[in-house]
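Message: I would value a second opinion on how I read folds in token form. Give me a protein, with the fold worked out from its sequence. Write it directly below this note and I will take it from there.
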Amino acid sequence: MRKIQNLGDNRNKGSCVHCGGPNETRDHAPSVVFLDEPLPPDLPASPSCAACNQGFSNDEAYVACLLECVMVGDANPALVQREKIAALMRGRPKLTAEIAALKRYEDECVVFSFDQKRIENVVLKLARCHVAYEMNEPRIDKPDGIWFQPFSLMAPEALDAFENDQNDVAVWPEVGSRGMHRLLIAEDNAFSEGWLDIQPGRYRFKVTVESGLRVRMVLREYLACEVHWN
């Protein structure tokens, strides 16, 4: 990751990106639970009040653990591929039991139920951090759309549109924002076709301003997510 300064409008800086409250902590996006050590240098972080920052932790742990369990088809920490998440599951037996209870069989296949609201809560949290950090446009209002879906369930044309939107630079970001710098300089090896690959195989995202603000995120190269504000 290359560190880029935000030279955008100062009126959009310094308050909680989730509620507009005081700047008391730094909220990383992606959340470190979705990454493995060593963490990338200059990991993006946005201002947040303490209540908002702490308020997401349980849902973030839920989503990170659920993803790993879905990928191996079991809620046994010994089978989980990421040791960081296996340790988290061992240290939080109630969470592990909660996820284990979501497992069932359909047509001899393992499937997991999920709490849509908790996943949406994390996806929106990440999106708000990204639009504030990259575009210098904090959005504490309700988005016009939010969705998530595993790659394996996406139709080929939908997957291609998600990955390769060719019209997303028709409108440029705010002058001075990090997003504008990335478009003009493009010297960051992590930046390709509009995607910022924070940690390969763990997390990447893309922010565009075509037809409003749109954030796309990929967790674990498994779950595609999108949030947009018109």
Summary: DSSP finds seven helices and ten strands in the chain. The CA atoms of residues 68 and 82 lie 7 Å apart. The beta strands are 25-28, 45-48, 103-106, 109-112, 145-150, 191-192, 195-199, 203-208, 213-219, 223-229. Residues 6-12, 167-173 have pLDDT under 50 and may be disordered.
